[in-house]
Design brief:
The chain is an alpha/beta fold and 416 residues long. The chain folds into two domains: 218 residues, Glycogen Phosphorylase B (Rossmann fold, 3-Layer(aba) Sandwich); 176 residues, 3-Layer(aba) Sandwich (Rossmann fold), CATH 3.40.50. 41% of the residues lie in helices and 16% in strands. Strand 9, helix 8 and strand 10 form a beta-alpha-beta unit.
């Protein structure tokens, strides 16, 4: 097939799954083109070596890549974030001719505005498109804290919901990242046969668990103590504040060290909170290159997977879950719904109620009391669960079949 991929984020940004999808589909013999923006995530600044211009093209292996200008932003200012989303939607739609010879278009649908160019291609020439929905709109937008007051909230809800109905109706197929997300889409009127579930895989899969590095362990935590690591975006929804408060509650009665590795819009506030609580068992580290993450997983006793308690969280499976499991690292999670169910089903960690420092502190104490054989069993279960349920090979094979079905379903331009 000739496959077009639309994604606002692509390598060298930390967007391993859309990048890996493009490469994997090309390796399977398909002709792949990617329409994307200039790299700026997560700093909100265009990466060194790139200069925004209209005619930029490059090659990623055998994948043709066209980048279009956008307004770079990744902060809590709702107007700036909207400008970021809408600028890519506009420029990618204007450049959609790059995908004119494609049989099908696959949209990495976060943000959902990335689907605008695909919808235009369908309207103009009947090209089918598949939406891989990463976060549920309008829920994630309205619950992000950037939607403003009640009037703006209501206006956004009705506007976004109307646009989504248009996109969903005309899409050849929808892919959800969690069972609860799929059910929500069906409840909102999408035919059940039109929605599949594909778990997000780890973009940096390794055929063997990473090797333990004592130097990394000593950098992250102290000898003889249980090490829990939060690695990734320190944003508002990630609820790192609860981690800090929970660590403070048990710092005098449990051998726990917490390492927070990453940055984001809530980073400064979280560091101030840790200082105000006089925590002695938390260390902060700036973002690290993705190549360093396997050694961090190997050095950790547990990875922390947390989100604020919002309805949308129950149908969200953070990408860090797959990354941790693929490295055989147990987890401690506060994410309700699908993540908690997976944790119980796979037996690879602990879960507790969200946004409760006391509940998380109690879970930390239980984890600290666990002996080494029990931890090793959890590592084995984490590894097994990933490769049995979430591997890239299985996901790409399923996605390839979905795209092929979409091509066969092609209808004349202007029809839904």
């Amino acid at each position: 097939m000739k496959i077009g991929i639309i994604t606002q984020w692509y390598s060298p940004e930390r967007a391993p799954n859309p990048s890996a999808t493009a490469v994997q589909l090309a390796e399977r013999g398909h002709e792949v083109k990617v329409l994307t923006g200039f790299p700026n995530y997560p700093t909100g600044r265009v990466y060194p070596g790139y200069r925004q211009r209209w005619s930029h093209r490059e090659v990623d292996g055998s994948v043709q890549v066209r980048r279009v200008p956008l307004y770079p932003s990744h902060d809590t200012n709702g107007i700036k974030r909207a400008a970021n989303f809408l600028s890519f939607a506009s420029s990618s739609t204007a450049a959609a001719g790059f995908l004119n010879d494609c049989d099908v278009v696959y949209v990495w649908a976060t943000p959902m505005t990335a689907a605008t160019a695909a919808a235009a291609g369908h309207a103009l020439r009947g090209c089918p498109y598949v939406l891989h929905i990463q976060d549920l709109w309008p829920d994630s937008v309205l619950e992000s804290g950037m939607a403003g007051g009640n009037v703006v909230h209501t206006l956004l809800s009705s506007t976004i919901s109307g646009a989504l109905r248009y996109l969903y109706q005309r899409a050849a197929h929808l892919v959800a990242v969690a069972p609860s997300m799929r059910q929500t889409l069906v409840d909102r009127g999408v035919p059940a046969e039109k929605v599949s579930v594909l778990y997000n895989w780890c973009g940096d899969e390794s055929p063997a668990p990473p090797t333990f590095d004592l130097a990394v362990r000593d950098r992250l935590g102290r000898p003889g103590r249980t090490l829990a690591v939060f690695a990734g975006n320190v944003g508002q929804m990630q609820d790192v504040e609860t981690i800090v408060r929970a660590a403070a509650l048990c710092q005098h009665d449990s051998p726990l060290d917490v390492a927070i590795v990453g940055s984001g819009t809530a980073d400064a506030a979280v560091r101030r909170l840790a200082a105000a609580l006089c925590t002695t068992n938390i260390r902060f580290f700036d973002r690290v290159d993705s190549a360093e993450m396997p050694s961090i997983y190997a050095a950790s006793d547990y990875q922390l997977v947390t989100l604020k308690d919002r309805p949308v969280s129950r149908g969200t499976i953070p990408s860090k879950l797959a990354a941790a499991l693929s490295a055989g690292c147990p987890i401690i999670t506060t994410v309700p719904g699908d993540v908690a169910k997976m944790c119980a089903e796979g037996g690879f960690g602990f879960s507790c109620e969200p946004e409760s420092p006391r509940a998380l502190a109690d879970t930390f104490r239980i984890a600290c009391a666990e002996d080494e054989p029990a931890r090793l069993r959890k590592r084995g279960r984490a590894w097994d669960y990933y490769w049995m349920n979430m591997s890239m090979a299985a996901a790409i094979e399923s996605l390839e079949a979905i795209l092929a079905d979409a091509v066969r379903s092609k209808v004349p331009a202007g029809q839904s």
